[in-house]
Specification:
The protein contains four helices and three strands; from the N terminus they run E-H-E-H-H-E-H. The protein is of the alpha/beta class and 87 residues long. It has one domain. It has a three-stranded parallel beta sheet.
Length: 87
C-alpha cells in the first residue's frame, strides 16, 4: 500500500479554498493512481479557509473513505493504517 503523507504546512493556501478546485484536482489524481494521501497537522492554523464549514464538510467526507485522510499527527496515521495492509 502506498501512502503519501504531507504536512499541512506544505500545502498552498489555494488547497483550502474549495472554490479554487485545487484540492479536488490533487485528491482525484491520488484516487486515480490508487494511492492514499494523508494530510497531517492543524488545518485551522494553516489557513482561514481551512476553518470554513465547506472545508470541514470536505474533511469529514474524505475521512470516511479509504484514499484521502486529514489527520492530527503521525500517530493518528499509524492508527488509521493499522489493519489496512490488505486493502
Amino acid at each position: 500500500m502506498s501512502v503519501i503523507a504531507v504536512p499541512v504546512a506544505r500545502l498552498d493556501p489555494a488547497f483550502f479554498d474549495l472554490s479554487s478546485g485545487f484540492a479536488g484536482e490533487i485528491t482525484q489524481k491520488v484516487v486515480n493512481y490508487g494511492l492514499k494521501l494523508a494530510i497531517i497537522g492543524d488545518f485551522g492554523a494553516a489557513d482561514a479557509d481551512a476553518t470554513s464549514q465547506p472545508f470541514a464538510d470536505y474533511v469529514w467526507e474524505t475521512n470516511r473513505g479509504d484514499h484521502i485522510w486529514f489527520l492530527d499527527d503521525e500517530a493518528a496515521l499509524a492508527e488509521k493504517l493499522a489493519g489496512r495492509s490488505g486493502r
